[in-house]
Every structure is written in C-alpha cells, then in structure tokens.
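Quick start: read one record
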Amino acid sequence: MTAIKLDGKATAAAIKHELTTAVAQLRASGITPGLGTILVGDDPGSRIYVNGKHRDCADVGIESMRIELPGNSTTAEILAAVDYFNQAPGCTGFIVQLPLPAGVDTKKVLEAIDPDKDVDGLHPINVGRLAANTTEPFTAPLPCTPRGIVELGRRAGVNWDGANVCVVGQGQTVGRPLTLLLAHQSINSTVDGCHIGTRDLAEHTARADIIVMATGVAHQLTPDMVKPGAAVFDVGVTRRINPETGKSKIFGDVDPAVAEVAGYLSPNPGGVGPMTRAMLLVNVVETAQRLN
C-alpha cells in the first residue's frame, strides 16, 4: 500500500480560487475585507511568513495592512499597535505574528485583540466559543490549522464522521483547539487526545482511523504504530542545521516509511502548512460577511 498524498498546496490553491469569487461579491456590495499583521523584530522566518500572507491577500483581492515594530519594542508599544487595528474600520481582522521578542508579555498582547477581529481564532474568548458552540453555524473565527486539517481531509475523501481520531500533542495552536473542533456535530469524531504524559502512545495510535501528529518530534510516528489504511496528518515541524552547508532542513513528526502503511498521508512541508494560510483568508472573508 502507498498512501494517497494529501496535497495542501493544490487544495489551498483551489480554496483561494473560490475566495476570489467571494471577495469580488463582497466588494460589489460595498464591503472590502482587510487583513492586518503586526510583526515585531526581524526574525527571518516570521518575515517570510508575514510576507506570504500579504501575497495571499493580493491573490484573492483582500486588502492588507501591516505594522512593523523594532525588536526592542515594549509591551506597551505593541499593545498600541493592537489597539490601532482594533479600532481601524478598514481592518476586518488581524494577527500578531509569533513569537514575540523576549521580555514582551505575549499573553497580555494576545488577550488585547478584539475577539471579533481575531482571525487566528485563538483568543481565549474564541476558544471558549469553540468549546461551547457545538453546532453550526459557527459564531466566531475557527483556529486556522485545525480547520485546515479537517478541510484538507474532507476534500480528499477522508471521512471524519464517527472516526476514531488520535490527536498527538495538545499545544495551544493545534492539538487543544483541534480536539474541541472535532467534537462538533458537523464533524462528529471520537477524539483520543495524547500528550507528553501518555504512557503508551502506540497503543492509542494503532487503533485510530485518523492520526494527527503535532509534537515537533522528528519522525516520532513509525509504521508499526499505524493501523493499515489510516489517514495520517503530519503537522509538527523540527528544523535541523546541516553542519556542512549551514542550511536548515525541515523534518515532520511522521517517519516517511508510514506512507507504506497509511491510506492517506499529508507531506511535511506541503501538507497542512499551506492550508493554515488558506484558512486565515477564509476567516477574514467570513468575518467580513458576519460583521456586515
């Protein structure tokens, strides 16, 4: 068996094509969606990621605006930027690019975002809404990576309804919100949430119909831990420097040999990552529709 590739790049491109039509319809009715970004410091990875988001906006017709602050900015200065976007009428929603520099109160900054403009879907109020509202339509932006995982699987034919799903890793951006999202009636999965305290991880993964790996431990999931035909989503990232070239290489949480056992497998990179960016655009468009 060779797993079917869950191609995030192709799926994200299809979603962006669909969004182009939706944005054109909004603009025709006098509504112009706008995404704001706040970037603090000169982290190369963060800058590349933010630049990509602005290119995505241009591709589908969403206006974009950015605030860039020096790496020595204080929490108060960053909070002022957050307040600006909270008040800006042309900003439908915005994100604060993480990580923030050492010494900045990240929790305070993120909690200062207007929950209705939180297009990352990770504000505590929106996580609470996700937990409390188990039926559609959703009343708040959904967290981008969990939403992207579900949509990538759906479009490829992965059946979430009634599936036993093992989510490995309970981080704030993927594992915890994904566990909540999968319990919604529109998805209807049975979720097994594993974390650093799980005693026998293989016992949980081996009985799962769907496995989502989000630990950041390179090649942690091996073929013997996977039920034949299961759908596997490789989300976690480990970066290692080649001492000879000095270049960084990305490793996912899933051993490549899992492709010989699984029924579906998302590559890493090229799987869930592009879907996260696509879902950010979806959240901006849906927020514009909901707030107008």
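The chain is about 40% helix and 15% strand.
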